[in-house]
């Protein structure tokens, strides 16, 4: 039993006439007659009483008609929903991003995407890059902005931008007058540190150890907003991405003499083709980054990368 047979059957049942049904279907009348005959052979019973000038449903035809209408309605409904998804009139997109991006790049990017595709439900998960990679692998996220490189066979990545890490200090801090500092200058300086799982924590601790000392933590376990507020309150200094420092805010960004950089890129599963909504989101972010007007002031050490 094929869909076109059911469509022809319903049309004939409603018109009570093969020729009129064929005309409405915009097919040749012999094609309709042949399809109905094959359907009757498959079912093993006549569906119509054929009379001069018109037709009438047999008991078998009466039984089949409501079923055929439901099948066709379901198929048409499914087709319509799939087309709406393809046309981005509806759908769902789960996006992940590191905290530094959720307070800088993501708000204008998601606003632009939502304005262009208001029917797409957006779900955002903010987490450290390590956690985001795990969620991508589990299929909980469609696409994420993560710290590269990502060495997972199940994921593919493409770079977006490279930025420097800077030392964030209050304006009255002893280091605030410096144009640059070295990692060695942070020996004995209390740090406000991110919770375990943040790439920033691992990068900072590794840099201090390469310089020959263990960092001193004044406070640890914070998220991005908390770390910035704690640093501004004078609890300690913080090593953070240059993106998050507002030039008009309470913290001053001091560049490192030997820059620490990190690359931010997109990641998604290799075995699951990124949906059209996902592809449009990626292009929205790339276009916004290329426009270079998404920050009030472009931080030093920010480089736009091409995939």
Explain what the structure shows.
There is one protein chain. The protein is of the alpha/beta class and 307 residues long. The protein has three domains: 3-86, Winged helix-like DNA-binding domain superfamily/Winged helix DNA-binding domain (Arc Repressor Mutant, subunit A, Orthogonal Bundle); 91-161 and 263-304, Periplasmic binding protein-like II (D-Maltodextrin-Binding Protein, domain 2), CATH 3.40.190; 163-262, Periplasmic binding protein-like II (D-Maltodextrin-Binding Protein, domain 2, 3-Layer(aba) Sandwich). The chain contains ten helices and twelve strands. Strands 3, 4, 5, 6, 7, 10, 11 and 12 form an eight-stranded mixed sheet that branches. Helix 8 links the parallel strand 8 and strand 9 (216-222). The longest helix is centred in the N-terminal third of the chain and has 28 residues, at 59-86. It is rod-shaped. The protein starts with a helix and ends with a strand.
Name the descriptors.
307 residues, alpha/beta, Arc Repressor Mutant, subunit A, D-Maltodextrin-Binding Protein, domain 2, 3 domains, 8-stranded mixed beta sheet, two-stranded antiparallel sheet, 10 helices, 41% helix
Order of helices and strands: HHHEEHEHHEHEEEEHEHEEHE
What is the total tally of β strands?
Answer: 12
CATH superfamily of the largest domain: Periplasmic binding protein-like II
Q: Note the main sheet.
A: 8 strands, mixed
pLDDT average, as an integer?
88
Low-confidence region ranges:
none
Kindly state the percentage of residues in helix: 40-55%
Do you know the CATH topology of the largest domain?
A: D-Maltodextrin-Binding Protein, domain 2
Overall CATH architecture of the largest domain: 3-Layer(aba) Sandwich
CATH class of the largest domain: Alpha Beta
Q: How big a fraction of the residues is strand? A: 25-35%
Number of domains: 3
Distance between the termini: 48 Å
Shape: rod-shaped
């Amino acid at each position: 039993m094929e869909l076109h047979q059911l469509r022809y059957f319903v049309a004939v049942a409603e018109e009570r006439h093969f020729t009129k049904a064929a005309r409405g279907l915009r097919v040749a009348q012999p094609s309709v007659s042949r399809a109905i005959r094959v359907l009757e052979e498959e079912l093993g019973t006549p569906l119509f009483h054929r009379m001069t000038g018109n037709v009438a449903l047999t008991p078998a035809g009466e039984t089949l008609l409501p079923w055929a209408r439901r099948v066709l309605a379901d198929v048409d409904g499914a087709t319509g929903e799939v087309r709406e998804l393809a046309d981005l009139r509806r759908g769902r997109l789960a996006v992940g991003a590191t905290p530094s991006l959720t307070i800088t790049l993501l708000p204008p990017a998601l606003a632009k995407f939502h304005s262009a595709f208001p029917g797409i439900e957006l779900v955002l998960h903010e987490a450290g890059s390590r956690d985001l990679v795990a969620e991508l692998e589990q299929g909980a996220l469609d696409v994420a902005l993560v710290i590269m490189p990502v060495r997972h066979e199940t994921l593919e990545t493409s770079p977006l931008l490279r930025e420097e890490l800077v030392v964030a200090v209050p304006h009255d801090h002893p280091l605030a007058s410096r144009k640059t500092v070295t990692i060695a200058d942070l020996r004995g300086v209390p740090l406000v540190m991110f919770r375990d799982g943040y790439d920033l924590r691992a990068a900072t601790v590794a840099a201090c150890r390469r310089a020959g000392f263990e960092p001193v933590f004044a406070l640890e376990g914070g998220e991005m907003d908390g770390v910035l507020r704690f640093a501004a309150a004078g609890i300690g200094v913080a090593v953070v991405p240059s993106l998050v420092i507002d030039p008009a805010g309470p913290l001053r960004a001091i560049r490192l003499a030997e820059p620490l950089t990190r690359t931010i890129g997109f990641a998604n599963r290799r075995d699951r083709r990124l949906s059209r909504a996902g592809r449009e989101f990626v292009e929205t972010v790339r276009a916004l980054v290329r426009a270079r007007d998404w920050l009030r002031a472009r931080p030093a050490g920010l480089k736009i990368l091409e995939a």
